[in-house]
Amino acid sequence: MWTHAPWRGRLLPHPLPAGERLRAYATWCNAVEGNTTFYATPSRSTVESWAGQTDPGFRFVVKLPKPITHERRLTGADDELRAFLDAIEPLGPRAHALWIQLPGSFGPADVGALAAFLGRLPRDHRYAVEVRHRAFFDDPRAVRLLERVLTGAGAEWVPFDTTVLFRSPPTSDGERDAWSKKPRVPLRTAALTDRPIVRYIGRDDPERTAEGWRHWVDAAAGWLREGRSPTVFVHTPDNADALTLARRFHDDVRAEVPGLEPLPEPMPSNGPLPDEPLTLF
């Protein structure tokens, strides 16, 4: 996401060489969703570049490749998994969680495969699972089954909150596209571990997006008071203002938890690159 075209020259310096774009993004936000790894396992040298552009406290939530989660459905993918784990090793402590996003067809009958897969994973990583099958939201037995498996493995359940997106008909091309692609599932706000991860998508209108995240501000503030360390990703259908919205969300949480460290001033879109990545918390 750190190369999103609408940010170039408006929020991030442009042009920038590929090896400096993440460094610029990391002055705005202290975490990123690793979506590109879903489509292809990156080379180790690419991941080394990511590590070199970020402080050790920067958080990557990196998605497992599609062949593992969607094509093989967590079975018989040991070679692909080993290649992926080897590739991301240079991230070190920046690998906040490995993100197991499962297809909408992955339902309660498949939980055994998930349990077996989680049981084989190395313990030197943290894991977070995103499910989209309606039974995991509508059927209390399915909810309890999944929670038991995740809790037993020390894995988090990642909610993807699309309720604001689907609250009223779309009003932009981006919203219409999102309506056709994003899962329509009920809201879930419970955390299973000390590292909750939330994905929230609002609307292309920044004010409607901010109005819809109030319950996540309260949840994040509550988790922080409990000693947990939440990570919240803020999206809109076109993501044009996602960077400014993420910082606004952080400010809203900080208003409830004054001890939360502020984010640094973002790199000016026409300013020089720093010699070292800024430390973010």
TrEMBL record:
Q: Which Pfam families match?
A: DUF72
Cited InterPro entries? DUF72, UPF0759_sf
Give me the ranges of the annotated region Disordered.
258-281
Stretches of Pro residues bias are at 261-275
Q: Which SUPFAM superfamilies match?
A: TM1631-like (SSF117396)
PANTHER family, sorted: UNCHARACTERIZED PROTEIN YECE, UPF0759 PROTEIN YECE
Name of the featured protein: DUF72 domain-containing protein
